[in-house]
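User: quick one, fold this
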Amino acid sequence: MKRSRRKIVKAERRLKRRILHKLRTMLSQLPVTDCKELKIPAPWGYISGRWYGNRLERPILALHGFMDNLGTFDRLLPLLPDHVGVLCIDLPGHGRSSPLPLGVRYDVYNDVFLIPRIMKHFGWKKVSLMGHSLGAFYSFIYATLAPDTVDMIICIDCVLLPKFDTDIALESFRRNLDQHMIHDEILASGNLREPPSYTVPKMEMALANGSLSSVTPELAQHLLHRQVKESGLNPQSFYFSTDRRIRFYNYWDISAELGADMARGVGKKPFLIIKGSMSPFLGPHTDEAISILAQDNPHFEFYEVDSGTHHVHLGFPEECAKYMSPFIQYHRPPSRATSYQGKL
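Assistant:
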């Protein structure tokens, strides 16, 4: 009986692959010049975003990674289907979004809560999620907390955050707690100095080095354009405008056992994972959770992009779109996309 079932599942997957291959030749692409800048109100200020493409139907909500901004999707978006729009946001303190208030730490809980906040603002009853790195982690967490409200998940090079040794994790927590309080006091005093500034080539190199070469200096421009300001002290120089308190992020270390239980809560949803072959983010600590997500789920897909770094979508957007576009077309086809009549 089990062997018969396996044969049926394999046959279904072969048929699906043939359908997806045919869809690839039919897709028209998202026009990135057609975007609307948004400021979504929040109690501490606003969440900055860009809504690309179709604004008559509910979009895909795209979440970037740690210390990045919505520019991380610049090269990928033009390659995605045009019938569903994409709403990319800057997380609080990143890009052009407002920083969190003094005394409030940057952590998983505050950021994950942005998803239902945005859904409520636009009047969505469902959400389609696409995330990279920390944004992928948030997408996974929200799908476990409110699975009935999620209809599709795309995770780029992350599901669970990497594990750290206990001693390193505790020391990091102590240091970040102290540093966050110190920076809160500096901001409260109003005695602020302009951060160090650099020429554009040096900023590109600094960003590349900060990403551990996941982003090349040539591609750094896609992230820099939303997170720098012109120096008032040094001509032709710029400084990083990201809230410096983000560096002291309150990390959430999830065990493999908890990750597995969370994966069970997601259910048999359309779930796409794309991994960069050179990246350590989808390591052994995620194996059990991914196995559970894939188990008996005909809507689960996993692909690895050769030579891809952690920012695989920025470095190899064509390869990522090759898998993402038919996945979106299949699970969010025009005929089934939910009409959107809410705020813009």
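User: anything notable?
Assistant: Residues 51 and 155 are 20 Å apart (CA to CA).
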